[in-house]
Amino acid sequence: MTAELVRGQNHTLPQTRLEIRVSAGSPVVAGATLGDERGTVRGAEWIAHPASHRVPGLEVSRQAAADHRLAVDLDALPAEVHRVTVVLALPMGAGRPVSFGAVAAPFVAVTGLDGTEIATFTLTGLDTESAVSALELYRRQGAWKVRAVGQGYAAGLAGLFADQGVAEAAETAAAIQEAVASGLARSVTPPPRTTEGERVRHPAGPAAAGAQAPAPPVPEAQPAEPLGDPASARTEAPGGGPIDYAHPRRQTSAPPPPPPTAPPAAPGQPARPVAGDATGWSMDERLYNQIWGMFEDLARAVAAYRSAVDFAESRMDQELDRALSDPRNRIGGAGDRAREAARAKRDELTGRAREALERDLAQLAAESAVVEPALPAAYAGWDNPVWHAYRVPMEIPMALRLGDLRLGEAPDLRIPLLVRLPLERGIWIDSGRTASETAASTTGDQLRGLAVETAVTLAARLLAVYPAGEFSVHVVDPAGSAAGQLSPLVGSGVLAGPPAAGAEGVASVLAHLTRRVDLVQMAIRAGAADALPPDLDTGEHLLIVNDFPHGFDDRAVTQLRYLADEGPSVGVHLLMVADREDARAYGPVLDPLWRSLLRITPVADDHLADPWVGHAWMYEPLRTPQGSRVLEQVLALVAEARRGGRR
Predict the structure, then answer these.
(1) Residues in Cβ contact with 50 at an 8 Å cutoff, skipping those fewer than 6 apart
(2) What's the pTM?
């Protein structure tokens, strides 16, 4: 029976190998500290955190996430450790919550390795605190217990560590936040939860067969959205028309459940997958939610498998250590029999875990097989037949596909990477060399060319999914090095103007877009829509910047950072094609710029992390099929629709 703890209450732990699961409504940092008899943390080596995620007997997540799974082996802790404190903190950064009072109350559960809950604790009553000691696992008279703590610290991690006796508390806290910021820069932003919260899961699907579903999240309070946010900014254009940066179908109430489209499966058999088997107001929204549910299911199924394999290996090592610690077992056949028995148990456990994973993967593969052909153009790959029947849409879709994601355990199962529209953060296509095998076998010039091609296909998708005349693309190519790759955009006539070259061209485009951001922001804040110039284009704008920082002086760099920070809220978005190493001369001044952008690569690379368990996912950009002219055909239809709208 699960013990539901309140602050200060304790409960005996029946076993020493545990998982601690954290569920929060927004990304949090999860770590743990080791304390001696007095509760003192003797040094940084006694703290498990994203920058140093493993200490003896303890392993934590490598990044901030909405859900965490911490592995604990109390028998493997150093003998002088008498207390393990689970620590939660809010990641620092612009636009992020600054206190736990502004987010949903975190839920913490201590479970066995099979997922059975032993004790749970909901951290209610927090206000201005940005770090909190959630739980303590402590040793008392040879037995281990868990205590619900819930002690918050307004001074953050630095105050928490100082209270536990860490000598360099502020430095340690700063190092953790720096590691977290780097992790968040590569993480995929999860979709906002509906009030129903969870996706509709199949009875024998991934959550049932392998991955353990998290505890139900505490309903999150809905604060008023700030004026100027893409989801809420509204004012009036000079002619009385709306300047509306909200998604036209974004709702504030709970969407209806999916309609019944297939008969229920026979008892004991997995449900037959159905495209659109998720909640939503429309088929596009249901497909969007279903894809994110598949993404989460695969992440959790693989996490459960990896956890089981790690446990089997650790158990084998411990059994071998115990058996061979007796000198009598090191001679003759006793040692060999102990090794064989330990390995047999390891193989049995890993085999069962693999069977569960295979069931999950089979269900997800079947779901993907029916979902992929049903996707609308905005969600579909370039090889989907839906593009051959393409027509310029009348309204903005809910999301856009940027590429595909996969994990090593399921190389043939690809999950579409969808981002909400309008874009809420800019995109950086990294043209530099990465550690992936594909990048290692590609020359620097080839990588730069592929990066620009990726930018062109992404810009074409954005132009194709917006109504005619509601999306404009500007290109900055200071040295003219991307003329060949940009030819589909230039030749079709869909650009707002010729690619800007040289320092003068860079300055002109940046000044134009900066002026637009300033004017719209002032109109929204002052409620003076009638003061907007009549020639101001109130549609969405995308700025493609190639070969940054070439052609950029200090003023241009400042304007670019301004557009990255302020532009998305008023419909100006940034797409950079750059190698970060080329910008090292600017020092740390550009670090906030890189972190504000979603980094993707022109070749396959495992740099993106999911928001649930933090797997390193292999990202693959979208490519048009070899020999296909689908890109040119789509751009021609977009250009024709734009010319028709100007008549």
Answers:
(1) 29, 31, 60, 61, 62, 63, 64, 176, 179, 180, 183
(2) 0.69
